[in-house]
Design brief:
Layout (H helix, E strand, L loop, with lengths): L1 E8 L2 E7 L3 H9 L14 E6 L2 E6 L2 H5 L6 H11 L4 H8 L3 H14 L5 H10 L7
Parallel strand pairs: 1-4
Antiparallel strand pairs: 1-2, 3-4
Length: about 130
Amino acid sequence: MTRVLIFKAPDAFGVIEVDATAEKIAEAINCGHWEDYLPDERGPMFARQQADVVVVTHGTPQLIEEKPRLSRREYQVLVLLGEGLTTAKIALKLDLRPRTIRGYIANMKARLDAQNIQQLVARAVALGLYFPE
């Protein structure tokens, strides 16, 4: 069974289990045959394999390939956000001020066009900037 993360909208996604390998699922979706594995979805769709998870977004690959760049500190903050830490706990862990952490988060939200932290992490996963465990 492979987990498939489907982004239906910028802030709405679902997770399903599919009985096939991640490689086969991603290949089928990218060839336009998503009905084989995702019969309830409408296209066009694009899939990206990330370890043993397949991330699926509606749209074309050109939109997805344009990845914003994150600084080393922004990436550290993103990973800790993905682990569920609060701004205050991230500040303690990185020995920075909470205001600095909020600045990093604001910059990343602007770059990834996210309205909140959950959407920020979800978009980072969809773009292949962050790989949750």
